[in-house]
Amino acid sequence: MIVVNEIFQTIQGEAAYTGTASIFIRLQGCPVGCAWCDTKHTWDYEGEKVDNIIAKESDSDTYQSFPEVELLELVRTNYTAKHIVITGGEPCIHDLRLFTELLLDADYTVQIETSGTFDIRCHDNCFVTVSPKYDMAGGLPVLGTALKRANEIKLPVGKAKDLEVIDKIKESTNVQIWLQPLSQNKKSTELCIKTCYENGYKLSIQTHKYIGVR
Question: Is 168 part of a structural domain of the chain?
Fold first, then answer.
């Protein structure tokens, strides 16, 4: 069963798939504990279970559980984009191997966005974005195996100290590193731009927030 907080169609606004029409499947559950998280309503299972998740219109802790085949059918019959983004919460608390295989067999491209704090159980052909969350309140370590599986790294940056983990990341992977300023903060953005100039990283600026979509 896959536990879903919400499903919606939008434009991916971050990192390599920026500009891609996408169906976001936001899963319920996350023990990572990022203080600046903007989806805290996905953290636990204290909310009400609902029976029509696609009718959901606001951020809340309500959720619906699906067998993988039924979730695929819901996606196919209600949305038109062909790129799936599985996010959370922390999606990798779930075993996503069957669901991602079904999606790929149905000719979707599949992207998973994860904190890197859980084993990534998905089809080999999924594109995995690891946004490593170090020293968060949940006390969970970023796994070297998750960094090795990553197709890209998307590092949230609020201050210079946040950049200190890059050398540690490079010990496990040599994929493209994107720097993403927290909350479009001006100083954080300037810091990321300067660091990109100096090190060849790329800038991820959450373009969906600038164009007014989710």
Answer: no
Domain for residue 194, yes or no?
Answer: no
Residue 116 to residue 145: CA distance in whole angstroms:
8
At 209, the pLDDT band (50, 70, 90 cuts) reads confident
Q: How many domains does the chain have?
A: 1
The helix/strand/coil state of 126 is coil
Q: How far apart are CA 183 and CA 189, in angstroms?
A: 9
Q: Could you tell me which residues come within 8 angstroms of residue 124 by beta carbon, excluding any fewer than 6 positions away?
A: none
Confirm if 132 and 164 have CB atoms less than 8 A apart: no
CATH of the domain at 50: 3.20.20.70
pLDDT in tens, 135-168: 999 999 999 999 999 999 999 999 999 999 999 9
pLDDT for residue 214 is more than 80? no
Instruction: Look at residue 213 and tell me if it is in a domain.
Output: no
- Amino acid letter for position 31: P
Question: Order of strands across the sheet with 152-157?
Answer: 64-66, 2-11, 21-27, 83-87, 109-114, 127-130, 152-157, 177-181, 202-203
Token pair for 91:
């999606």
Copy the structure tokens of residue 129.
């974005």
